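Spend some time on this chain, tokens included, and walk me through the fold:

. . .
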Amino acid sequence: MLAQRLRVLLAEASTFAVLGGDPAVGVALVTLRPNVWSDGPVALLDEMYVAPEQRGSGIGSAILRQMVEICRDLGAAAIEINVDESDAGAMRFYERHGFSGTDPDSGERAFYFYRSLT
């Protein structure tokens, strides 16, 4: 089911993946969407995964750097990442790479709200 869904998503111009390692031990899946605030799209890092035994080896950082570069090349205005409140390690990782959990204009903490429609 997941493999089929990924085939469909990756066939679209609005979705791309970045693999890390040879053989691949990490992946980032990104979708692009238009937004009202800028001419370029906003990129959403939908999924980022590095095999547990490879964490801390630099694979995740390399994937993230490549993802940011691709987003720049595609004219993205911003990159958004949703992180669970309990995942302090992921928050530190993204902060080390220039991402922030606060609104750049007000300094207020950013939140993500969710409602399933299925």
About this structure: The first strand starts at residue 15 and ends at 20.
